[in-house]
Amino acid sequence: MVRFVAEPSEPGFDAILVRLREVVQKLESGELSLEQSLAVYEEGVTLARRGQQLLATAEKRVEILVSTTNGVEAVPFDEPPNT
Fold first, then answer.
1. CB 63 within 8 A of CB 76
2. pLDDT tens column, 20-64
3. Which of the residues 13, 23, 51, 70 has the least number of beta carbons within 10 Å of its own beta carbon?
């Protein structure tokens, strides 16, 4: 059985979203120096990439859960699975 478990020290998707909102607010404030803005932007890019990885993992888990007797059937999220 394949298990997808995040490292305990890593933030979850919800925590990443909260931090990304904070990053955007800081960047939009216009109060940061160029160097500070670059550092905050870099953090935002890292967070966004990690969030994308978590979403991809979640999608894989859904695909596994929506398996058929003939293997895994990928079902788009906007369509109900065949039952």
1. no
2. 999 999 999 999 999 999 999 999 999 999 999 999 998 888 777
3. 70
Q: Give residue 76's identity as a one-letter amino acid code.
A: P
| Global pTM value | 0.67
Contact status, residue 80 vs residue 46, Cβ threshold 8 Å: no
Q: Which residues pair with 68 in a beta bridge?
A: 71
Characterize 61-81 residue by residue with b for buried, 16 or more Cβ atoms within 10 angstroms of its Cβ, and e for exposed: eeeeeeeeeeeeeeeeeeeee
End-to-end alpha carbon distance in the chain: 23
What pLDDT is stored for residue 80 in this prediction? 53
